[in-house]
């Protein structure tokens, strides 16, 4: 009997273990199940599975009941492995439980596999990260490197996309990773609509730092938020560090340091990320030429836009537009419906 019941949807199986962090289980369910096409149709079906179905202990004072076993993995297009507070067992290849090892044999070749937080230990123990870049929670980085020296660990970033295998850092970066997968599958408009419904930032680049020293400004210390808001309203024009610093009445040196402390990347990196997001939006939702989009996004020329876009996404702007072009009217209607759902509490 099939586990997934909606043919045609992208099938996502979330593989949970004892010691589960419930919030991480909720992330793919909350985000991917909210993803809709321009005409309002669901795009993903998400189920939870375990090596042994039934009661699964969480890291709280309750259990969850998991209906499906590892047979779900054989049907899945994407498998997501959240963290477990039992992750600190010695996860080398010899120590992985037979049941968990068997679970990975059920996954079809070509299936996309992702981890949240220390779920990366499981992917590494299964041999899926050998020779690849990966990340995990920064507090677990040193131990991860000792156990899996063949993995190129980057414990400073939010998530790493190696194509068919993706890893993310702590809990919040699981949100970033799921939105990234939605964006890859269906474009920025769909991912942004999901983010809007769930009241989360629509895009944090995977290379952004995990650990930001001052995510909330300390009392009597100025934030760089005013400059960021102003920059977003003026992306079409050249923006200098001096201009941004003057918005906060800071020296360039102080502004640059404070910006990195608050945002996790340099002002120039952040500006490029925001301009790429503006390009994505315009490619999906407008008929503007590449030259016109380059001007509106502040890249100046079509050639500069193409260079940055290819570096960031691995595809040309024209190829991206062909893949993710939406019906503008239908998308606007769907966005209005999503906003109505939010306001009604659905």
Count of discrete structural domains:
2
Computed CA radius of gyration, to the nearest angstrom: 21 Å
State the order of secondary-structure elements, H for helix, E for strand: EHEEEEHEHEHEEEHHHHHHHHHH
Strand content: 5-15%
Helix content: 40-55%
What gap, in angstroms, lies between the N and C termini?
31 Å
User: In the CATH hierarchy, what is the class of the largest domain?
Assistant: Alpha Beta
Strand segment tally: 10
**Class from secondary-structure proportions:** alpha/beta
Helix segment tally: 14
What name does CATH use for the topology of the largest domain?
Answer: Rossmann fold
As laid out across the biggest beta sheet, the strand order is 2-1-5-6-10-9
The CATH superfamily of the largest domain is known as Class I glutamine amidotransferase (GATase) domain
Mind telling me which CATH architecture of the largest domain this is? 3-Layer(aba) Sandwich
**Which residue ranges are poorly predicted, with pLDDT under 50 across at least 5 consecutive positions?**
327-346
Mean pLDDT: 86
- Main sheet overview: 6 strands, mixed
User: Which overall shape is indicated by the principal axes computed on the Cα atoms?
Assistant: globular
């Amino acid at each position: 009997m099939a586990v997934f019941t909606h043919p045609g949807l992208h099938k996502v199986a979330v593989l949970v273990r004892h010691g589960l962090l419930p919030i991480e289980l909720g992330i793919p369910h909350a985000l991917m199940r909210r993803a809709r096409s321009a005409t309002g149709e669901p795009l993903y079906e998400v189920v939870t599975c375990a090596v042994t179905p039934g009661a699964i202990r969480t890291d709280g004072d309750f259990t969850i009941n998991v209906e499906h076993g590892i047979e779900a993995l054989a049907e899945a297009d994407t498998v997501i492995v959240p963290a477990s507070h039992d992750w600190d067992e010695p996860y080398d290849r010899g120590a992985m439980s037979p049941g968990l090892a068997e679970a990975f044999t059920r996954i079809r070749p070509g299936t996309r596999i992702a981890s949240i937080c220390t779920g990366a230990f499981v992917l590494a123990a299964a041999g899926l990260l050998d020779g690849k870049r990966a990340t995990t929670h920064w507090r677990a980085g040193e131990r991860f490197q000792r156990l899996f020296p063949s993995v190129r660990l980057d414990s400073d970033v939010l998530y790493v996309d190696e194509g068919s295998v993706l890893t993310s850092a702590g809990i919040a970066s699981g949100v970033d990773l799921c939105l990234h997968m939605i964006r890859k599958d269906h474009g920025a408009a769909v991912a942004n609509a999901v983010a809007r419904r769930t009241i989360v930032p629509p895009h944090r680049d995977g290379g952004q730092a995990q650990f930001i020293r001052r995510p909330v400004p300390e009392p009597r210390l100025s934030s760089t938020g005013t400059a960021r808001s102003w920059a977003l309203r003026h992306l079409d024009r050249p923006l200098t560090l001096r201009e941004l610093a003057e918005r906060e009445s800071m020296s360039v040196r102080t502004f640059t340091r404070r910006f990195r402390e608050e945002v996790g990347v340099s002002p120039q990196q952040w500006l490029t990320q925001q301009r790429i997001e503006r390009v994505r939006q315009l490619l999906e939702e407008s008929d503007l030429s590449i030259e016109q989009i380059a001007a509106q996004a502040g890249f100046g020329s079509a050639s500069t836009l193409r260079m940055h876009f290819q570096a960031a996404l691995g595809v040309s702007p024209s190829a991206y537009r062909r893949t993710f072009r939406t019906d503008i009217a239908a998308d606007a209607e769907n966005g209005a419906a999503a906003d109505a759902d939010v306001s009604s509490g659905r």
